[in-house]
Amino acid sequence: MSSKLALTLIAGTLVLGCSACAPTDVGFGETVKYAAAAQTIDPDPVYAPDGAHPGDSGEKGAQAAKRYRTDAVKDVQTYSTSESASGGGGGGPK
User: Fold this and answer.
1) Which residues, in sequence order, are CB contacts of 90 under 8 Å at separation 6+?
2) Scanning 28, 35, 53, 77, which has the fewest C-beta atoms within 10 Å of its C-beta?
3) Backbone angles phi, psi at 54, to 5 degrees
């Protein structure tokens, strides 16, 4: 047997032998599963009967209702996200 063939067989055996005893992480992929679960919307959330519900804001709601009843509604504010309006640019090198 030639020395190149013998060296190749020995190297292949070592590589396969080392990969067989490599530790495996039992929690592999759990981070992805957790992140997906955190971003999944619960279609039927359960709220306490006397607790706050989504959209509840007593102080803001009371002020808005008062302004609505007295015809003193705030004007809509517009914001621009373009560079020319803010005078700034991105944070990258130029």
Assistant:
1) 83
2) 77
3) -55, 135
